[in-house]
Predict the structure.
Amino acid sequence: MIDRKEKEGFTLVEIALALLVVAIGVVSIMALFPAGLQANQQGGDETRVALFAADVLNGVRALIEVTPRIDVEDALDSGIPSVGSGILSGDSPIRQSSNSDPETVIFKSGNPSISLEEFALRYNLQVFEDGDDRFGVLLQVWPNEYGPKDFATLKEMGDAYVFYTEVYHNYRF
């Protein structure tokens, strides 16, 4: 006769419980992947929006500082120059928004033989006189080209990145 106390090994119930604990751990870890991917996407969007805003605001600042006061409005209508990061090398020039609806700009791959869209942004740029030699610059940016196209709906959603700066006109030529 074999004594049960001398048997070594695990019972079926112990193995089932161990597999249950491992399965719960694996499922918990797998649940973190979508959150990590979403955080990565949001970080990339914020970086592109910040580079775009820096380039636009610096371009507006440069344009206002080197343009005679009476020609500032015409200069803004002709397009904002790219300064800094060079992110504004897209096909469509950045201009002051003529109406309340946002403009869309699409940035393509640097390789001219490939027609690949890197990313797209929607923006609303408003430049207004805020005093004798001072201009206010308000830039609202949405990090994609999809979704509602009218400004009122976008404003209600509240997911715009908003940038504001003041530029003093120091034209001395």
Remarks:
- The first helix runs from residue 12 to 66.
- The helical segments are 12-66, 72-78, 151-157.
